Amino acid sequence: MSRLPPLRDDCFALPPGVNWVPVDEALARLREGLGPVAPVETVPLAQAQGRVLAEDVKAMRAHPPGANTAVDGYGFAHASLGDPPHYLPLIEGRAAAGQPFGGTVPPGQALRVLTGAILPPGVDTVVLEEDCLIEDGRIGFSRSPRRGSNTRPEGEDVQAGDRILAAGRILGPGDLALAAAAGLGALPLHRQLRVAILSTGDEIRESGAPAARHQTYDANRPMLAAILRRWGMEVVDLGLARDEAGAVAAALDRGAAEADAILTSGGASAGDEDHVARTLDEARALRTWRIAVKPGRPLALGLWKGVPVFGLPGNPVAAFVCTLVFARPALLTLAGAPWAAPRALMLPAAFAKSKKHGRREYLRARLDDEGRVEVFRSEGSGRVSGLAWAEGLVELPDPEGTIAPGDPVRYLPFTAFGL
After folding, report:
1. Rounded mean pLDDT of 26-52?
2. Count of CB atoms within 10 A of residue 109's CB?
3. CA 73, CA 98: separation in Å to the nearest integer?
4. Max alpha carbon distance in the chain (Å)?
5. Average pLDDT, the chain
6. Which residue has the higher pLDDT, 32 or 222?
7. Cis omega (within 30 of 0) on the bond before 22?
8. What is the reported pLDDT for 73?
């Protein structure tokens, strides 16, 4: 198993004097500072779904491996044809997929061939059986086919030695089909990124446990765990940590020992009980980024014993948005994949809104029956029900602006974030 170099201590550093960080600058800084940390291993093809390819992969052999017939019919040498109509005697035997014909087809004669059969010597053209009349041991057909009709040449799809998959690709079913067809039984992959998740706060309780009115059930860890698994990552659940520096530090210690990255929620700002930020700061490992984004803003970043920590807001909606917008491309980079920017759709709005200047805004959204983008009835980041209602996000640019129904807006379906 190959090892990758550690991250630099200053990978989250911002230029001096920067306070509020625009979203694009924050993403650029993350992209510049991060690189793969997951080591490389060889994995059987059957276990490669959703994994990140560590090296370029070349075809072991051509696909198809030999010239073959694309239909059921009759094969012959095109050069032996005269003027139509054509009559060719059939020789005994046939060629079928997995059952090649053992001889050579003489000029001016034809052989029965079935779909996928390797073309035997003497055959370079096939006529469809529906176009033939079979009579007295010979075939007859009225039109002259072009040379090579109804055949597939060797290597038509892939030649031996071709690069078929590029390093960094997140493998899907089609990729595995291509690798298998090209003769590969195993692939060099980055080990699945291990991401630890931690929720902090004296008020947080496990969902389903007894809770007083002043206590809140933890929505973040189930949400983050589900997101990470959809991204093909392993989850290390660090549970809940009380608002105590020692408890937070102990949880971070465990995360650093067992994971490649840590996602915390809560305690990322500068309040009295923001112990994630305070613990990282006391260890001289904190970079607090005040990002000009709604919902979100504070994002505590740092290295704890060499492992990157992403301190997300405690509010579930803000944690969700920050995970998709900031943590996803960063984690995929750590996993060995290329930087992942979501692909947006420009669609007409089904809503009206006036937006202030100076921050990027993300609204929970989905498409209506007419293909327009509607937004959740409330922008309140405490409305967790909006996450279940939404099918994507509307991204509103940094400058101020007014949106009227019918105006084009930038819509990011959750599928664009790998969900």
Report:
1. 92
2. 19
3. 16
4. 97
5. 90
6. 222
7. no
8. 97
Residues in CB range of 337: below 8 A, 6 or more apart: 52, 168, 169, 170
275 shares a domain with 145: no
As given in the structure block, the two tokens for residue 351 are 């809503």
Supply 190's token pair.
Answer: 């980055």
Residues 166 and 233 in one domain: no
Asked if 23 contacts 293 with a C-beta cutoff of 8 angstroms, the reply is yes
- Find the Cα–Cα–Cα–Cα dihedral 32, 416, 319, 232, rounded to 10°: -80
State the alpha helices, DSSP H only, in 182-304.
220-230, 245-258, 275-282
Same-domain pairing of 269 and 290: yes
Mean pLDDT check: name the lowest of 6-15, 59-68, 138-147, 384-393.
6-15
Q: Quick check: is 15 in a domain?
A: no
Last residue of a domain, one of 310, 335, 360: 335
Please indicate, yes or no, whether residues 321 and 407 belong to a single structural domain of this protein.
Answer: no
Please give the distance of CA 341 from its chain centroid, rounded to a whole number. Answer: 11
Q: How far is the first Cα of the chain from the last one, in angstroms, to the nearest whole number?
A: 30
> Residue 171 is part of which domain span?
43-50+54-61+159-190
Mark whether 238 and 331 lie in a shared domain: yes
Confidence (pLDDT) at 216: 83
What span, in angstroms and rounded, lies between the C-alpha atoms of 12 and 286? 9
Number of domains in the chain: 4
Q: What angle do CA 353, 356, 360 make, to 5 degrees?
A: 90
**Phi (first) and psi of residue 342, to 5 degrees:** -70, 145
pLDDT digits (tens, 9 = 90+) for 230-240: 999 999 999 99
212 contact partners, CB below 8 Å, separation of at least 6: none
DSSP character at residue 414: G
- pLDDT tens, residue by residue, 61-115: 999 999 999 999 999 999 999 999 999 999 999 999 999 999 999 999 999 999 9
Tell me the pTM.
0.86
